[in-house]
## 1
Amino acid sequence: MKKKILPILLSLGIAGTLVVPYAGYAASTTEKIDQQLSQLKKKKAEAQQKANAAENQISKVHSEKEQTTKDMKALIAQVNEASKKLSDLNNQIDQVSATLEENGKQLDEAEARVESRDQMLKSRLRLMYMNGFVSYMDVLMSATSFSDFLNRLEALKSIVNQDKEILESNKKDRDMVEQKKHETEQQLEEVKVLYAEADAVRDELQAKEKEKEVKIASLTKQEKVLEDISEESERQLTQLAKQEADLQAKKRAASKAKSPFTYTGGKLGYPLASQAPLTSDFVARINPVTGRSENHKGIDLGAPKGTEIRAAENGSVIYASWMNGYGNCVIIDHGKGLWTVYGHIMNEGIYVKVGDTVKRGQKIAGVGSTGQSTGNHLHFEVRLNEKPVDPKPYLR
């Protein structure tokens, strides 16, 4: 009996010596993985901070660019208005110039009339000088009869009235022409001043328009640089999430924990509590926020704020935070290189954290409109080996 017990004890002793080192090895491996996870967490925090800073700066630049664009549109409208005003003033100048020309003709005609009348008066004076001055009284007194006297009186009245009319007409013509000339020249000067002012305003507006164009170009360049930084931060965060997922897998293997992955192919669960309209497909499109062409990496499902977002399959949460244009975002690893991404989650609407295991159909978040979004909806992606693929075949 003792002989049988001894080998058994020896066997148990050997087994014990084997189990204890293995347990120590597993603990050591887990500790190392935890340290690596801790380092990754710090790197993720740094990357997230950098991404947030870039996103905030993009938002400021985008707002400034929008305002500058509005200002430039207003300036263009003012330039067009100033150009129209200049055109109207040009027409006005043409009209005033035409009036001046007409007045010039009237002046020439009036001066000709005045000259003709002056010649008539001068001719009479010459006759009077040559024949000697005869007073009106002499003419009347030399009448041979009363009827001759009356005739002479009428003739003298006619001559006096004619001379008076000539003098009055001359004065009237001279005054009228002088007045018209003065008024027209004054009007022309006023129009020229207005034209110069309008021309100066147009030049100033065009200078401001050019300045705005330069500013928009500069802001667009800044926006592009910041977006490159933002995209690089997104890639970095995705890579860190992948590394974290790999370390979590190693940790589960080391601790012999059960894998959360059960997906072997086939249809995924619908990511919302109820069916929703497809508002944007997995296609090339114009981003409704930035206005630039892009490849839409997923599909958008329109739903009210707070609508339950559900895990499309069993898996492990590898990201649960803010991510650039996605806003609040959750990424779930389902194993075999398959990820699902849930974007634009409402503020305080992420109900899971990194490292959580989730079940298919489990509530993980609430629909919102954070990040680059124009309204409440779920941005849903399926990624295979980190590359976005069309989610629709996985949901049908």
## 2
Amino acid sequence: MSFSIPQRCARQLLRAPVQRSSLPLFLTPAFSPARAQCFSTTSPMQSRVGANAITFPSEVSLSFVDLPKPMTRTRGKDIPTHAAKITGPRGALSVDLPTFVNIKWDETGRKATVSVQDPEIPHQRAMWGTIRALLQNNVLGVSEGHVCVLSLVGVGYRASIEPQATTVASTFPGQQFVSLKVGFSHPVELGIPEGIQASTPQPTKILLESANKKLVTEFATKIRDWRRPEPYKGKGIFLNGEKIQLKAKKIK
């Protein structure tokens, strides 16, 4: 046997002060105070990545350069005045340092430690780990390099590196282009940015290498956006061993 409460009575019941002892048993969960559900038994802890020291290989050097002052005044913004320049066998990269970030360089141990003026300020604490991660990525980039592998999955999908393009104009001398055939009626041509080396070890694989991690990942994502992996046939351009879960086909 089921019954319902009239709408007007339900409104009055919600506005009136609630006494648990006078409520029916089936209405008790609706008026009980919300409890925060905890999915972990461990206490929450903040990351301490920013305090970890960065180890520099013997072939990588660190230097600090002064940045030019901006021509226009900007209020309420922290304008970097220095930059950390990291030089290695694969090139040189720099990271602009906010005024509240300090880097302690140990020449003997070849280690750099990042610190901020006040770790209790949320913005400084957030940038603490960010600057440390950028420096670590640059150290790996100029010493070993960053690699992105794109796999083309689909009937007739293939890619090639061409010295010239018919639909895209070159932006610097000697620029190469990635030509994609991924199911369109025309080939897709993308200019390879300066600082990225591209190759096709197989017709269905594209290998991108660069010292700049941000640059190579952005270009790899740009290529992937032309044919993102779809979940029904599993076709598309997969980035760095990407895997997707296939869905069942809709049968009417």
## 3
Amino acid sequence: MNALVKVIAAVATGFLFAGTVGAQTLPGSGKTIRYAQDDSLGGNYVVAQITSQALKKLGYDVRLSTMDTTLFFQAVAQGDMDLATDVTLPQREPGFRAIAQQATVVGDGMIIGGGINGYLVDRKTALAHNITNLEQMKDPKIAGLFGRDGKAEMISCDPAWSCGVVVDYQLDKFGLKQTVSPVRGKYEALMADVITKVQNGKPAFYYAWSPSWMTNALKPGTDVVWLPTPQDALPPNIPNRGTALVNGVVGCAGGANPCRMAMGSWNYDTVANKAFLAANPAVKALIEQIRFPLATWSEWEGVISKDGGSVSVVKKLSDAWIASNQSQFDQWVATASKAH
């Protein structure tokens, strides 16, 4: 009887030890990741949830916070935040350069092929007045269609966003300051008015990007059209990653292909604290694998714009993606767990 008890005790101890070792082999065991997401809601929130789930599979405790990218840059440089997966580059390049000694870009961006951004007008007005490029806004008669007294009102970016700097620079560079007045405020609220205008058949002129909820609420080629810019032009401190000419842009005014956008393709890039990354090679290996097709982003953005960006909607989208792509998700985790 004593011998049997000893055997059972030994087996139990063995299982306990094995479980402890198994837990210890997870690269994130006992570690917390301070993960930031931008305060601009979109498919990036779904990606944050998917990435968080993968990090948890690696053993990490994930603390997700929402903050403006400018604040994130300060926090990650100081070591108060570890990473974010939705830093828009090259738009945020100047801010990133200021912290490049403390932080680094990981991977090739979360959008396969990158995203686009530029200027749009409602399709009805564009067709009625043959508006096929941004330069036509120099004409007070054309500009006045989108405002009054020969001057257009164009919805620009939220004051906290870097894209407004690009817009202001280009309006000056393209000779449009006399006929185009950029309006900056809470972007979501301003765009809600734009959507109502277009739905009521009224002229609208604004700056936007894709993938985003705006290009799902107002579809290029159906409701609105992209206006090609006359030339590549970016502020000196914002690098142009290749030409602004983009092939296959759906809804480019006049059917132009390639379509010259406001800048070359952009992406949601991951920025992480260098010291954190060096101590967590599994995180680096994971992030380097995670990317999603533009069509997937557009689907997420469409659902969010229709059903709202509540926590439950975002979680439903992330859970659905994982369930439909379980083998890929598991492969990401398995590969990352082997990183040293």
## 4
Amino acid sequence: MDSVPAAMEPTADELRYLKALVIAHYVVAAVVALSTLVPAAHMVAGMRDAGMWPDPDLSGAMFLVVLALIIAMGLGMTGLIAVAGYCLSRRRKHMFCMVAAALSCLLVPLGTVLGVSTLVVLTRPRVRALFGEG
């Protein structure tokens, strides 16, 4: 990476914000993963106890398909947030981090706080310069 011009050197606060955002991304990714997998485990255990495994009924199959899509989307968001945290730590892929922050705003309330905070920090000119942008 090219060195950042002296006029565009980030402040100590901005560097601390980036470090805090990296940690927050990993924490929120873990919370999203747990909140995605725990209900699925309960549902599977409940279906086995009720003798409904596998359920030949169409409504049961539709329920499983919808649940599988929700789990896939949750795990996809988990991966997106974790990779964005990694990219922030390496100061790479600025636009990817911006898009991930915008998408994490959909996960109310933690994702919204994380996404807005990340967008605020990443739009600063000195922080953009760290990524080799602008």
